[in-house]
Design goal:
This protein is mostly helical and 275 residues long. The chain has 2 domains: 50 residues; 216 residues, MetI-like fold, CATH 1.10.3720. It contains 11 helices and no strands. It starts with a helix and ends with a helix.
Length: 275
């Protein structure tokens, strides 16, 4: 009897795994087809128009340059060189979460800070680069500060808006049952704001990564992804430049996918609380 139950459980588990795999294949298949079509169109344009490799290299040349960069260690060095400032900058940018929550809970603080926050949010990230270079020079500190400035403002605004969208009826109900300020925050405001925090983190990672690459391209830092793109294009090694640009795209997609998964988890948790 126990063997039959175990076999049924194993069969059900296999079916669930196959169902999950089928869903993932169905979900990813259109993107894969579009990627193959893009590469085919790219190669067709190379065959028809025969552009100079300096202007537009072919897919095979870009792939060969990427493989060569992997073999000589340039890819791993560039990823490590950009990952450090991004991680440190994002760690400091997370301090915007409590600041945004505090601003959202205080109408006076919101009135004072909102115009400045939205003004900083509207500015392009690269506008901060000359000032940061003037203050800190061509150093790693410049890249870290660029990530902090690029990521902290949208994260702060998202947290602030999340607090302001909390149902006032829930807050009044919690206070009517004797809940203090901290109790209301931890039991009502924080759970309802969690999806906004997750969304803010996703936007912060995207903007922080863009800010990092923009300042790397501007100052030409060696041993990082932006520096590799800049050096490759300056030496007219367009195939290598394209290879690192596609590496940038892959890393950006991975970061967005990971942060989106966090946002989905937070949204599901909020739905469970509301229901």
């Amino acid at each position: 009897m126990a063997t039959m139950v175990a076999n049924r459980a194993a069969t059900a588990s296999n079916k669930n795994q196959q169902s999950w795999l089928a869903k993932q294949v169905k979900k990813r298949f259109p993107g894969f087809v579009s990627l193959v079509a893009l590469i085919a169109i790219w190669q067709l344009a190379i065959v028809i128009f025969s552009p100079s490799p300096v202007v537009l290299p072919g897919p095979s040349a870009v792939w060969d340059s990427f493989v060569e960069a992997v073999k000589d260690g340039s890819v791993s060095e560039a990823i490590a060189g950009s990952a450090g400032p991004l991680a440190i900058g994002m760690a400091f940018a997370l301090l915007a979460i409590p600041i945004g929550l505090a601003i959202g809970m205080s109408p006076v603080a919101d009135l004072i800070t909102s115009p400045h926050l939205w003004a900083f949010f509207a500015l392009p990230n690269v506008a901060f680069a000359p000032l940061l270079i003037l203050m800190t020079g061509l150093s790693e500190t410049t890249r870290i500060l660029m990530v902090v400035l690029s990521a902290s403002v949208p994260l702060c605004l998202s947290c602030k808006d999340g607090v302001q969208t909390v149902d006032a009826g829930l807050v009044r109900a919690a206070r009517s049952f004797g809940g203090g300020r901290l109790s209301v925050f931890y039991k009502v405001i924080a759970p309802c704001t969690l999806p906004f925090i997750a969304s803010g983190v996703r936007n912060a990672i995207s903007r922080g990564f863009v800010g990092l690459i923009s300042v790397e391209l501007l100052i030409g830092t060696r041993g990082c992804i932006g520096g590799e793109v800049r050096d490759s294009l300056r030496t007219f090694d367009t195939a290598r430049g394209f290879a690192f640009i596609f590496l940038l795209i892959a890393i950006a997609l991975a970061l967005v996918s990971a942060s989106r998964y966090l946002e989905v988890l937070a949204s599901r948790w909020r739905e469970e609380v509301v229901l």
